[in-house]
Design a protein that fits this description.
The protein is mostly helical. Helices cover 68% and strands 5% of the residues. It has helices at 16-36, 41-64, 68-91, 102-123, 126-147, 155-165, 171-186, 209-217, 228-249, and strands spanning 190-196, 199-204.
Amino acid sequence: MASVTNTINNKKGYNQLVLRGIGIICTVIGTVQIAMYPANAIMGLASWVGFAIFAFLLTEGLNHSMGKVLYGTRLFLFAAIAEIPFNLASINRYSFTRIQNPLFTLFIGFLMLAAVDAIRKKADNMIITILAEVVFTIFGTYLMKGLGCMFSSFAMVYIMMFYIAGHIHYPRVFELAICYYIAFYISTQTVYTLTMGGFQYDITTQAVIIPTLLLIWLYNGKRGPNSIPLRYASYGYLPVLFLICWLMANGGK
């Protein structure tokens, strides 16, 4: 299958560093909500915005990384390092096997994408590629749910969606259609009910992904500064963030 890039390198917009920064800010807000304001569902939406951005950047990492094994290894190491701080921030315990931090979600997603990408290149057959995309989306979702990974209900769908969009024509139409269908036909977690003209409209958690697409579409396809410290800080900030939120939530104890 011919590859159709999801971004155009010469278009206007911001680079990857800026998009990553937006994702980090949203992740910070969502983490503060988990650790300190668990009942605030509106703040929790920021977590999904951050996750969608990093799910997109995961596909960029797969497509443009010089060393996929190194990229995946780095993801796994930071996921492992972040696990205890995440447990402390979320439930104030050092060990809790029923839920895993979001870096494990991204790591599993990366493994599924790597498998599909290898099949795509080796088979060079549209039907086989589509079957692989469906199978690994389902398998990845069950694996995430079985391990208790964050965002597991829709994470693998979004990750695979961005991957597929990078290899088809009209990627934005595809992404918008998938996100709209999830938000208004599948998602059942209502965070706000809007009343207009005597009718009530339930706004679900997944509806926040639709405006997030606009943030992603403004990405111009350029990496921007990409030094080694920046690369490691992109995920390495999470363990530090979890620890800070835990200390704030517990008054420094």
